[in-house]
Structure formats: structure tokens, C-alpha cells
Design brief:
This protein has 276 residues and is α/β, with parallel strands linked by helices. It contains six helices and 15 strands. It has a nine-stranded mixed beta sheet, sandwiched between helices. It has a two-stranded antiparallel ribbon with strand order 2-5. Strand 10 and strand 11 (169-176) form a beta hairpin.
Length: 276
């Protein structure tokens, strides 16, 4: 079975800052990394192909430096990497991004054939979780989101059983293949890369496609032209200040906390003259 993983290079959000003048992410303030959820998707794809045979392909849309994220996927164990990079893709929201990736996937299906598509749950810079389902909708295949375990893949019957996280618990779902999974981090642990993979990744150069390399592309659906989303403003949350530190033994800290809590009468409701 051939598995495709859609990945994204993102800024490290633990370090990134917001430009106070433009209200946009200052991407130069943080190093670019492979989206953490996507790393788990690549790891799962590698494990599936080790069990069932086939190839792991990775696909990304971005500037030329996104090659670094693809090389990281090769290091994890992917076989081939593809990058669609063109100024006409720039400024894309999730709708335009899913369209561009879909057109690249169409070409990959003709050249390689695909049985399964994996994506991370979401990208840590946008946090929308919309691109994966958007791709599935365009491909007209089932989207299975928030997957935490792949229980079984039956390539003969063309089916897959997965466990997915929902608000009040978990679901066990069987789907036909091909389908698209978006995965949570707990689906696996990303293993340390063996030396041969690291050497291969260092030497590897992804295959790069522009818009002109894809077939039947409606350029009006790409980049800013194809992006109806408008971000009016973005700003970091204000940091709280004026906190009081509580010291002493555990017993003394508990007593101080109880005293402070009882002084905050507005936290309690009064019924029948009694505090509850």
C-alpha cells in the first residue's frame, strides 16, 4: 500500500512573537520546524508500510526552504518527498491550501497510486484542523479525524479500522480505502532515526513542482485570490501581573490559601443566610 503524508513546515510557536505593528506572526523570530503532528503522521505511515509493504510519500506546499521539513520526513523513514512551490501559492488560507495540495495529489495518484492519506491533527501555527478534511472532501474519500490508533488494515478487502478521540470518549470506526486520517500525537512515539536514514536525508533533494507542473489548475483558487478568509487582527494575550507568592510549610500554605479564599466572598453564594 502506498501512503501519502501531507506535511507543513511551521515556525516554532514556543519562540515566535507577534509583530505589534502588523498584527502578524513574526516568522523570522523563530526557527522553522516540521509540524509536530505531521511527524507522528509520517511515523505511522512508515509503520504501516513496514507491515503491509508499499511506499511512504510526503507532500508539502511552501517556499523553497520547506525542503528542510521534507528532509526530516526522509530521516523518519519516508521514501520520497514532493514540494509544490510557486509565488502563486502565496497567501493561501486553508481553502486554497487544500485545493493546491489536492491538485498535486491528483498527479501523484496517476504516477504512484495511493491507498491512504495521512495528515497531522492540525498545524501549530494556524491550529484550524481544516486542511486534511478539505483535501478529503475534494478527493471524495472518507475523512477520519483525531485518530489515536490504527487497529487493522485489510488491503485485500480495502478497509481500515481506527480509533478516534471524540469529546466524550472514543470511537472505533471501520472505513473503506482509500481514506484520509488526521492523527493525534498519542498515536505513536516518533522513533530515533537510524544512521542510514540520516545519511539519506542529508543527501536527499525533494521533487519540486510549480503550478505549471500540475494539471487543470484553476489559478483563481490559489493563493490570496482563492482565499476568502480575512484575519482582522491578531495579538498576544496580556501577561497577568501582581501575583502574591505564598511561602512556608505545606500546612502554612494551605492555611493561607483558605484564609484568602474565605476573604473572597464573591466566590461564594448565600442561600438562607448561610454561605455555601
Amino acid at each position: 500500500m502506498n501512503v501519502l503524508v501531507c506535511i507543513k513546515q511551521v515556525p516554532d510557536t514556543k519562540i515566535i512573537k507577534v509583530n505589534p505593528k502588523t498584527n502578524t506572526l513574526d516568522r523570522s523570530s523563530a526557527p522553522a520546524i516540521l509540524n509536530p503532528y505531521d511527524a507522528h503522521a509520517v511515523e505511522e505511515a512508515v509503520r504501516l508500510t513496514e507491515q503491509h509493504g508499499g511506499k511512504v510519500l510526503v507532500l508539502s506546499m511552501g517556499p523553497p526552504q520547506a525542503r528542510i521539513a521534507i528532509k526530516k520526513c526522509i530521516e523518519i523513514g519516508a521514501d520520497e518527498g514532493y514540494l509544490i512551490s510557486d509565488r502563486r501559492f502565496a497567501g493561501a488560507d486553508t481553502l486554497a491550501t487544500s485545493y493546491a495540495l489536492y491538485k498535486a495529489i491528483e498527479k501523484l495518484i496517476k504516477e504512484e497510486g495511493l491507498d491512504l492519506v495521512l495528515c497531522g491533527k492540525h498545524a501549530i501555527d494556524g491550529d484550524t484542523g481544516q486542511v486534511g478534511p478539505g483535501i478529503a472532501r475534494r478527493m471524495e474519500i472518507p475523512p477520519l479525524t483525531n485518530v489515536i490508533r490504527v487497529e487493522k488494515v485489510d488491503t485485500d478487502e480495502g478497509s481500515i479500522i481506527v480509533h478516534r478521540k471524540i469529546e466524550n470518549g472514543y470511537e472505533r470506526i471501520q472505513s473503506t480505502l482509500p481514506c484520509l486520517l488526521t492523527v493525534e500525537k498519542e498515536i505513536n512515539e516518533v522513533a530515533y532515526s537510524p544512521l542510514p536514514n540520516m545519511i539519506k536525508a542529508a543527501r536527499y533533494e525533494p521533487i519540486v513542482w510549480t503550478v505549471d507542473d500540475l494539471n487543470d489548475v484553476d489559478v483563481k483558487q490559489l493563493g490570496l485570490k482563492g482565499s476568502p478568509t480575512i484575519v482582522g487582527k491578531m495579538w498576544p494575550p496580556e501577561k497577568s501581573s501582581g501575583a502574591d507568592m505564598i511561602g512556608g510549610t505545606v500546612e502554612e500554605q494551605v492555611e493561607q490559601l483558605l484564609t484568602i479564599t474565605l476573604e473572597k466572598r464573591e466566590l461564594f453564594s448565600v442561600k438562607g443566610g448561610e454561605t455555601t
